[in-house]
Amino acid sequence: MKRVLLFILPILILVTLGFAISGIMQARFTEEKLMDDLKRKARSVGESLELSAEYILLNNDLKQANRLVDSFQKRERLQGCVIYNKDGQILAITERFSDFKERQRPYLKDILSSKIPRGVLEKFKEYSVYSYVLPVLNDDESLLGMVEVIYDTSYMFTTLAELWRKISVTSITLILLIIAIALLIQRQIFIIPVRRLTQWFTHFQRGETDKLRPFAEKGEFGKLISEVEQVALSIRVARRTISDEAHVRLQKDELWTETKLKNLIHAKLDDNALFVVSNREPYMHVFNESTGKSACIRPASGVVTAIHPILSACGGTWIAHGSGNSDRKFVNSKDKLGVPPEDNRYILKRVWLNKEEEQGYYYGFSNEGLWPLCHNTHTRPVFKESDWLMYKEVNQKFADSVLSELPASSPFIFVQDYHFTLLPKMIKDKRPDAKVALFWHIPWPTPEAFMICPYQNEILEGMLGSDLIGFHVQNHCNNFLDTANRLLESRVDTEKFSVVRSGKETFIRAFPISIDAHIDDGSFRVDPVRQVEKLRKELELEDGIVIAVGVDRIDYTKGIVERILAIDRFLDKYPEYKKNFVFVQLAAPSRTHIKRYHDLIGKIDELVEKINRKHTDGNWKPIIYLKKHFSEDDIQPYYRLGDICIVSSLHDGMNLVAKEYVAEKSDLSGALILSQFTGAARELTDAILINPYSIEEFADSIKLAIQMPKEEKQRRMENMRKVIAENNIFRWAANIITELIALKTI
Ligand code: F6P
Question: Of 723, 683, 744, nearest to 474 (Cα)?
């Protein structure tokens, strides 16, 4: 209330003063005007009385004088009139002013002697009057007498009082109106936003992150809110990280854990000085037309699977393309939000791209150009100049977004993948103190394959802005060193595994990416046995039937077509497995605006239908094809259900599905059929390795997986689980960070 008064009181005082001054001036003006009118009227009536009185005074006609006085007093507001002789004695006077005779009025003598008329304001009995006296002169200017007209002035006071009344009523009404408007404005621009900010903080304090709605305030208050939001977000993320640290410090573990990684990062990097940049965001808000609500989903992406656990453990900021159609609704004024939504551990900053940018940079140059260029699947890359220009613009946009976030001292920026080949140089040019690492999640081709790219030099130069470039396997590192050596004016140091270009050295290393394996965790959110049983029922799978699973984005590099052909061949070759074998394929539609991907979806649909039609027997069909997006939690029961997991990529940087399957098999059951053209095949040597192009060999490998003795399967699974437990995602991140920090450049 006190604050409201403080706000309103000055306005009130100013407005009241304004009205008072203008009222006084208006009253003054009116009063002067009324007085002028009265004087004018008195003068004119006095002059006409003078004319009539001249004759009367010449003849000293008293009777006529009285008649004249009577006739004049009937005029408007004229209260009376008097006729004097030249000695100043009254000859005739209006009855009600007869007492005038007794009054001493010295100025009458002055008028007689000076012969100059005069007006005077006087008080007579209860009347306030204005009397105007003027001399009556003969033709020779000799004095005959005087006439006087007397006006009542009380009407002037009545008029002025009425005026003041009107001014006061208007002023009070206006003041009340101003107070009401001021209160309303104050409520709108101050009280409501403050109330919302308070509510926001209450939810924030209670950890009710789902209730935190973004603010849309503009101007100075908007800026304040925006700053408050950023501080709150950082506190939330930091709070999470610190409490976790305290919790996990108690555990002793030989393996790389999130605790170890967290300790390493805290020791080596400043708090929250870790920045990750990728195209794909870890959380995407998508509007669901059927429910009318927005859902938060985890996109199917190797980058997301790998990087999310690192930032969850260590905090930091992840900058990515906000590609969900509802994404804008969930960010604060600086396009940021805390994620995971229910338990904020790090900050996601969304970068917005318009349709043209997304088309040119993502669908065009990244996925029609670089993607087929780097994957050896005999798919022709398409390089369009317009796509390349857009790719450059978007890289710059991301660089600007990253640069605007960087703290003053030595930040660590971890760039992901082929979408951002130009970013490292763009960042380094502006912030040479920043440590920049680029991880390439897909294969790197041979120099012969790479050299068809028209923009090879700019791409290599951009990448070499990094201090460290990581690939999954040594072979990709070697290809890159060869490429730099052959296509760029640079010096390749084969001892140090580095490329020196324009005095800048970039180290090339293999870091096989992995997953957060939870190998020794043993804790399950949902009872896995019951979950698998439920799934079996849903899919109408009979007990004892062999189940193989495949989990992929629908991409021509994943060898989904080859897989289906191999299943067809397997059933033709080994018909005893009909009705005893089912293959469940989870397929997430991906990059559907690209014709090749669109066509592939149609091709797989047709093929699945054809093979199912060919082999169907009663209620049994060999392939259950589930084409939709699956969350991480949705996928886990399928891994547990699968007696076999099939990964048949024609070429793949690593392939984390293979590792996820192994990590889920805590009972050591199951067999992994794995393409030899994946990065994972270098580590998971106990998988059944196949050449997916050889349908015959592929079909036989399915039989081998089914028939493999239990002990053999367990032994292989145990070995693979050991590899994953040791080389988990925390070790991967720790290796990159340690390497980057230890780098001694020339
Ligand atoms: O793993 C390679 C990769 O291109 C990642 O960079 C990407 O996140 C993933 O495949 C999924 O592709 P997209 O992001 O185009 O859906």
Answer: 683
